[in-house]
Amino acid sequence: MKARRKFILWVVVLYAALLAIPAALGVLLAAGLPAPEQEVFLAMVSERAPALAFAALILLFVSVGAVKWLFDQYLTAVHALAEQTGVVLGANAELRVTTQGGREVAEAAAAINRLADAHRALRRDFELRARVAGAKLEEERNRLAALMSELSEGVMVCNAQGRILLYNEQAKALFAAGETGATAALVGLGRSVFALIDRDQIAHALEKLQRVRQPGAAPPTTRFVIATAAGRLLKVRAAPFVDSAGTLAGLVLALEDVTGLLDQEAARRGLLQALAAGVRAPTASLRAAAENLAAFPDMDAGRREQFVQIVAAESKSLSQQLDAALREYADVLKAQLALENMRAVDLLGVVCQRIGASLGMASELESVDQALWLRVDSFAFVQALAFLAARLRDRYTVQRLRFSVHAAGGYAELDMGWDGSAVASDALSLWEDEPMQVGAEQTPLTLRDVLERHGGEVWYQAADPAGERTAHFRFLLPAGEAVTTPARVPRAPAESRPEYYDFDLFRESDATRALQERRLSELAYTAFDTETTGLEPSAGDEIISIGAVRIVNGRMLKNEVFEQLVNPRRALSRESAAIHGIGAEALEGQPVIERVLPAFHRFCADSVLVAHNAAFDMRFLQLKEESAGVRFAQPVLDTLLLSAAVHPSHTEHRLESIAERLGVRVIGRHTALGDALLTGEIFLKLLPLLAERGVATLGEALEASRETYYARLRY
Amino acid sequence: MTKKVLIVDDEPNIVTALEFLLQRSGYEVMAAQNGDEALKRVESFAPDLVLLDVMMPRISGYEVCRRMRERPDWKHIKIIMLSAKGREAEVSKGVSLGADLYVTKPFSNSELVGKIGELLAGA
Hints:
Shape of chain A: elongated
Number of helices of chain A: 21
Helix content of chain B: 40-55%
Strand content of chain B: 15-25%
Strand order of the largest sheet of chain A: 2-1-5-4-3
Largest interface: A-B, 23 and 22 residues
Structural class of chain B: alpha/beta
Strand order of the largest sheet of chain B: 2-1-3-4-5
Oligomer: heterodimer
């Protein structure tokens, strides 16, 4: 419209100018003539009026033609050029501008295209670099995650505010409550480490570390022991790390379960004390009697006999004490035997080496099933074989041993054979109960202890008369599982990547900015859903299942979920069972809501709740708040209302419909966790759409929710 | 005058050995098998010194020692505690409860006789 008006304006101006010039000349000419000639002039003009009108018409065509040419060649062309340039710049860097305009415009277009080429090259280069850097970062993060998951220790990293940035599965397992909400461990990204470890203890560690830190010195560490809620004892090693400015940025916490170790340590100490106390009294009598015998040789025969009896009796008592103590120690040792999967051929390799080194005996591997794995405590088992070898050498002058091992059902048959002499039939059963001794090395453990711990047996098989098989001891041991070095997944797709770390949380400071003003993208959320016996909590309907997942920094953490069935203490109606498919037998023995709700409350602490049709779920939760002794005071966002705010023209805001609209795949519906995951995913898709509508903070989101048609309808 | 020593221990073997040793060393000796008997014997026998085992059933040596020290008229009686427990805490406890000496089992006969002599000579 505007262009058209401009065109007309130009035509009018040009035409007016073209008409005005001859008219003005005529007027000037006429004005300079004397009066009679003026009349003649006017008559001449009037006479030629049709011709003049025709000329004026010609002029009009000329004007229109000229302006059109000007527009086509330049004005419109430049305008089109500008538009095309905008597209190149904003949307399609591959597009090149074209023009039907004049030569100068064509030159400008060529210049613009050159600029576009340069721009595209620059952009490509930049994108490539960004991609390379991104891939490298991703690779490093994945390597770190893989490394952490391989560690047997639990590891957590927190920033200076005590927020967890990184953890591994082991750390999570160490803190697992082991009761309600099984996976609802409090280890999670962005969660506070102070919920796990006493604030004072961390503060103390920090203080200690600050004090000892010196420039250039090795990073200090500090150790302490904590008790978890489940009653485990963890040894914590805390090491600080600093940012580029040298200030403390956070702590690396290495966690080790020492519950068992401390028990063993206590058992050993107790054993030693009992031994000392038990041995002292008989030794005292023994010594007193012996010294009397030595000091008073003149005593009468009756007395002498009495003291000799005392010496004999107390010596015996002492030996018994010692035996008992050693037996107990053997039990402690037995409990410590750690069974691990080991390749049979590797184990025998160690055995041969050991027998050669400490006994000077030759040994060879005769036939070995290379693929066979054993479940053994390699140290104790090697010791047991070396012990038998030593006995064979000492009693039967055996010099050379042969080993073979084969699979036999779920067991492995391990044969230790030798040429020559058969052993006495009861030799093995005697040796089985002796404390094992190999050279100078001795342990109170017996061969029987070791076999018992392994769940294995050993027996003697004489050489067969045909000479096909030499005499041997046959061990039957449970076969183990092959430990394969997991083939590294060639860069896990982003979806399945473990979500154990989030370094973006580094930047988060616990600024006391009001929650309302926090940006939606930086908040932590718990998307949740409940399944219930019916729709009316006030009429006695109850929650039977709660599922939830955490969302931190715009990522749904599929490793941090809450899933718990709840015993409703009432019968299930058939209609509701048809929806959620949970039978009464599944709920039997599940914890009641008063026990589940506190666990769920802990799980969603410090986060904004997200649910679909949240009012429904919140009503159920709120009715139980008092009896469970918790309060859900955090803000609540409703995906139904947010969806209505984003798409006011749609009237359909069921979970499935929204999912379809936003391209979210629907799986596992109508389990609490399945719906919670779906709700979370939808919520994440809604965030950018909300941002487009200028809804960026939590306060704005709550306000937008309130303004929707659905909200007005319901409240 | 012959000094009197009371031996209190529930283990007959050590009692036999100590009884013989102290008789040969010139003391008048009596034995008690447990805490109750020990207190009665202190009353009747009026010893100058008591060799007191700590670990006895029912009334422990510590308890006997404590009760003895509650009696002003028994203040002069020396007490040597004999014990199979040798930790510092137990030694301190014995001395705090009023024992003159705490000897950890096993001990040397001659040293014990020497210490008994010293204690009784100082009295």
